[in-house]
């Protein structure tokens, strides 16, 4: 049961990261300021890293539960 909670949490984190990635990409398209664009691109890299980490963690947990 605990493993399923962890899988569900990873799934939620993945969905949240995908939402942040999509929103940040839209902001980057709209921004004119090079400084703001650089800041947003840095945030985007962090969100993409979070997404990758949580996808890998969920796969390991799913393997463990089978």
TrEMBL record:
Protein name per the record: Uncharacterized protein
Organism: Clonostachys byssicola
Bias type Basic and acidic residues, positions: 26-42, 49-66
Disordered: region residues: 26-66
């Amino acid at each position: 049961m605990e493993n399923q909670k962890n899988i569900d949490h990873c799934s939620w984190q993945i969905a949240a990261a995908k939402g942040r990635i999509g929103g940040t990409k839209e902001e980057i398209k709209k921004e004119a300021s090079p400084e703001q664009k650089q800041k947003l691109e840095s945030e985007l890299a962090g969100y993409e890293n979070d997404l990758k980490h949580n996808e890998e963690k969920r796969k390991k947990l799913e393997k463990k539960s089978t």
